[in-house]
């Protein structure tokens, strides 16, 4: 695998480690930001733990060739959820404008955030296609 083919995985690993660790290292601020979102408090409590753990697990999946396909797929799914949420915020679907972005990403406007997320989704799709030949095979016929 040459350097160019590793680029999507490397950039996604950096993204997930950066955002996941930022939420862990700034735990109180991150937890409070989840509680500032427009969903129920119980969901905010679950997401405060689930999101950084998921981000770090995705980075871990992307590190190894045997799990890289799953890491790209998980990246696409999570980024799609984040992008949909950012898009809804951008069009004014929520009564207030919450954010639980990591560090430098907090300084982006909603359109820039949307574009950045779309670029990372594109990277994940490229990575998924590149790792397609390494996709895990079904354990039993018909699965």
Model description:
With 143 residues, the chain is mainly alpha-helical. It has one domain. Helix content is 69%, strand content 0%. It is built from five helices and no strands. The chain has helices spanning 3-25, 27-35, 41-63, 68-90, 110-130. α1 (3-25) packs antiparallel against α3. The model has no long low-confidence stretch (mean pLDDT 86). This is DoxX-like protein. Pfam families: MauE (PF07291). It is a multi-pass membrane protein. Residues 2-128 form the Methylamine utilisation protein MauE domain.
Please tag this protein with its features.
single chain, 143 residues, mainly alpha, 0% strand
Stretches with pLDDT under 50, minimum 5 residues: none
* Spatial shape: globular
**Strand proportion:** under 5%
Query: Given the structure, what is the number of helices?
Result: 5
- Counted beta strands: 0
Could you tell me the radius of gyration in angstroms? 16 Å
Distance between the terminal alpha carbons, to the nearest Å? 29 Å
Overall helicity? 55-70%
The main β sheet shows up as: none
Instruction: Tell me the count of domains.
Output: 1
Class derived from helix and strand content: mainly alpha
List the secondary-structure elements in sequence, H or E.
Answer: HHHHH
pLDDT averaged residue by residue: 86
Précis, in short:
By secondary structure, this protein is mainly alpha-helical. It contains 5 helices and no strands.
């Amino acid at each position: 695998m040459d350097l160019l083919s590793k680029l999507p995985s490397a950039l996604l690993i950096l993204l997930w480690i950066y955002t996941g660790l930022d939420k862990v290292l700034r735990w109180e601020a991150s937890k409070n930001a989840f509680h500032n979102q427009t969903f129920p408090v119980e969901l905010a409590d679950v997401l405060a733990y689930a999101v950084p753990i998921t981000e770090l697990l995705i980075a871990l999946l992307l590190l190894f060739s045997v799990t890289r396909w799953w890491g790209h797929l998980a990246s696409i799914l999570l980024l799609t959820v984040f992008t949909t949420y950012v898009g809804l915020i951008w069009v004014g679907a929520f009564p207030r404008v919450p954010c639980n972005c990591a560090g430098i990403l907090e300084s982006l406007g909603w359109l820039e955030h949307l574009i950045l997320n779309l670029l990372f989704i594109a990277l994940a799709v490229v990575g998924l296609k590149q790792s397609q030949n390494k996709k895990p095979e079904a354990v039993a016929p018909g699965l």
